[in-house]
Amino acid sequence: MTIIPRIKAFVAEFHIMKRACALVRELSPGYLEFNLIKSLLDATVPFIAIYVAALIIDELVGDKNLNVLLVYVTLSVGGTAFFTIITLFLTKKIDVLNAMFIIRIKKYLNDKKYSMDYAMHENPKYTELHAKIVEVMFLTNGGMSSVTKLLSDICHHLISLTIATGILIVSSLDTSTVDGSFSWVSILFFILTLAVIVISVFFSARNSKIVGEKEYNLTQNSSTNKYLDYYHYHYMEDDQAGKDIHLFNQRKLIIGEVLSKGRLPWMKVLNGRYSLHQKYFGMNVLISTFVGGYAYIYVGLRALAGHITLGSVIKSYASITILIFNINELFIALSQVKSNNRYLRSFFEFIDATSEQQSDKQLRIKNCETWEVVFHNVSFRYPNSDDYVIKNVSMKITSNRRVAIVGMNGSGKTTVIKLLCGLYQPDEGCITLNGKDIRDYDNEEYLKLFNVVFQDFQLLSLPIGENIAASRDYDDDKVWKSLEVAGIDDYVRGLPHKLKQPIYKYVHAYGINLSGGEEQKMAIARAHYKNAPFVILDEPTAALDPVAEFDIYNRFNEMIDNKAAVFISHRLSSCKFCDTIYVFDHGVLIQKGCHEKLCKDTAGKYYELWNAQAQYYS
Ligand SMILES: Nc1ncnc2c1ncn2[C@@H]1O[C@H](COP(=O)(O)OP(=O)(O)OP(=O)(O)O)[C@@H](O)[C@H]1O
């Protein structure tokens, strides 16, 4: 690479680090600054100690003045105590700020994740990116987690080598001997010292660069931590998985999986790193040893020739070794910055990902009496997939009408709901709300129109009232009404803390565990509380016993009122009462009409499904 592209590349790396530092400062004010102050102390204190030691030795060898010696010793002991206390204070402060940084960066990432469009959120490109960021940051302490340390290390090494260079230049250029005569030998040694340092710098830089590249490739080619992370920290930690782990003896399978795809390849990566460090940093150590030997000869000869005092011997020797050590470490840190910046690029790619659905949406949603959503020849395929899962679908959902969507597993029912709610956008055709393309509406406002109970709904480990209202503030009467509609009010009245009773034990030890049916009733109550103009129930009664199912279907009328309702259910008997039934097959809308009309078409899919189910109940 010629010089201009090199400079450009350096500036680009600098800008990424600068942006990362700004984020660290925003998330944990003072964290970076305290680390930098500590680096400054860590770098300067050894020199002060060496300087005072040199003064003491020169005094011992020279004038032997007890008062002066006392001052030096007091300086040395007092200084050490003072800096130790400051370092202790800084370390504690940094620990606290580090903990704050970790908590806030997790929140920052989650905020970003959940402010993305749902389509982006589910897009494998972004899920992969997010997984990699989390893996690097929280399992290997890289990416944003290592920005502060790297910057502090660089500052430490730069300060150390600046001071060491200063001391060396001053002592080497002091070409006058102790007795005042001039020596050309000193000049020669100074040039030789420079040459030794330049050679050492060259090898350190080269080796660090090689290690940086190879190390990045090693970790990049392995996604092993994902296995460790998923199985150890998610699946095995999830109480819900407990039954399956026990009953299907999954432990053995998981241990095998973790071992073969996680731990063993990860050990390979670690061993690879170890070999790299051994080989290349071993070379650096050899060079340092050589330079150390040279420093002994150089300083020793100057002392023997009477060019420098015994105190200067200590200062010069320490300066050369500190200089070489810090040059090595500086290049290692710089190569780490370069590798780490690749992770930072991924991090910022994720943070900068812009929501397509949120862009230039001006249209506000006005309250109105009746609502109508129409699918116009809609086709759709999931991101990164070639196959259409919804093909040329046209259908209508309006206020005061009940609609059912039926079909075999995988026929596209849930996908239709995701499209209806604006979680995904059609690839072909369009969906309109009251005549206007839903893409033109503000996405957040549009989402508020829908009350959905998905099959895989999630309740929170929070009090029941907060779960139902999806808020910390709620209207008690409204919550009780929603619980009554869902048929679970009596159960909640019997609980010790009523609406304040937490669900699950993840957060509260006195939280309660709910049965599948009770959870489903809670989800229905939550949907009722939201009171939106569209009610969508995806298998809303799958976990309910027949009595509860019958009971809740009777109450749905109250819940739905004059709203638009969409039911998805494999129990066709529960769809019978709908005004229109849409029948899907492999993503195609193949039939529509009321139950009676569809049953008359004896060659149709609906008749086949209805009869197949009726057989089991006859
Ligand atoms: N996030 C996704 N990414 C890629 N493909 C998906 C995704 N979600 C669903 N699919 C695929 O889309 C097709 C339709 O799925 P969908 O969940 O809409 O079917 P369904 O009719 O609701 O099924 P079921 O009755 O089993 O709930 C399936 O083949 C499924 O594999």
From TrEMBL:
PROSITE patterns: ABC_TRANSPORTER_2. Keywords: ATP-binding, Membrane, Nucleotide-binding, Transmembrane, Transmembrane helix. It is a multi-pass membrane protein. The chain crosses the membrane at residues 40-57, 69-90, 154-173, 185-205, 280-297, 317-337. GO terms for molecular function: ATP binding; ATP hydrolysis activity; ATPase-coupled lipid transmembrane transporter activity. It comes from the Bacteria. Its main location: membrane. The keyword ATP-binding applies. It is found in: Cell membrane. Pfam families: ABC_tran. GO terms for cellular component: plasma membrane. CDD domains: ABCC_MRP_Like. Residues 373-611 form the ABC transporter domain. PANTHER family: ATP-BINDING CASSETTE SUB-FAMILY B, ATP-BINDING CASSETTE SUB-FAMILY B MEMBER 6. This is ATP-binding cassette subfamily B protein.
